[in-house]
Design brief:
Organism: Sagittula stellata (strain ATCC 700073 / DSM 11524 / E-37)
Membrane topology: Multi-pass membrane protein
GO biological process, one term: intracellular calcium ion homeostasis
Distance between the termini: 21 Å
Strand order of the largest sheet: 1-2
GO molecular function: calcium channel activity; calcium, potassium:sodium antiporter activity
CATH topology: A middle domain of Talin 1
Order of helices and strands: HHHHEHHHHHHHHHEH
CATH architecture: Up-down Bundle
Number of domains: 1
CATH class: Mainly Alpha
Structural class: mainly alpha
Radius of gyration: 18 Å
Protein name: Sodium/calcium exchanger
Largest sheet: 2 strands, antiparallel
Shape: globular
Number of helices: 14
Length: 317
Amino acid sequence: MIAGLALLVIGGELLVRGAVQAAERFGISPLVIGLTLVGFGTSMPELVTSVQAGLSGSPGIAYGNIVGSNIANILLIAGVSALICPVIVAHSALRRDAMAMLLATVVFAALALLVAMGRIVGAALLAVLVLYLVFVIRQERSGPEGGALLDKSLALAGADPDLAAPHPARTVAIPLLITLAGLVIVVAGGALLVDGAVALARGFGVSETVIGLTIVAVGTSMPELVTSVIAALKRQGDVAFGNVVGSNIYNILGIGGTTALIAPSQVPSGIAAFDAPLMVGVSVLLVVFAATGLRIARREGVVLVAGYAAYLWILWP
């Protein structure tokens, strides 16, 4: 499982680097690259892991990874970032993107409880993500004001400037080869991670769902944790907040939609009844904290981190 996580990180970096270089070679604007390729690229560990788990007949890991990652993003990553440096919240990120995250979270939780995650549901979630990206890109072009999805790209640039803004290649062949190599490595890493998680669950005698909600979710969220912590250390709290909100939007609409489209299944009853509603609750809590003075203070960071510790204590048998 550790080898799988390592391959996911390495492959994800290569995938983003190659895709961005290829996009620049084709003349795609930096704004579009940042909102789409970089955003999806940094969420690639979650995407590949959930799809692989779905195809392997392990919906507990597939949807536990999505829901667990979102809970970890809010309670652990936003909380740790606020402890390092109070997180300043941009008004645009709160008004537009945090509300979009909250709405997507509520819809996902309702779907998980009421219907199976079939291909129609997956296609609908992906269609909503595409429409949302088009809306954000048009709004940014008409009057750039920043936002969560752009902050997600900026967070990566802060963690690895060379990765987020590489020099355009002279030929498109090399970036395409890098992209393909990254994709192969990510897929291999996802397969190892899922196999290791299933074996670990059997070895500990716990459910795959618990492993998906905890170890797998935190492991695949490592890129977001690293980029948010680096942003907080650089006193870029607004970027840390946007990185969390943007990641959650991609997780629900992009990863949830892709998983349902490729590997339709029912969300495990435990996740639908407890963890998904909890995800809604912590999302509301994050928005409330962010709306009070447009910042998440250190004491609120303590509450978030303590909440994640309590969640693990309740979850782990």
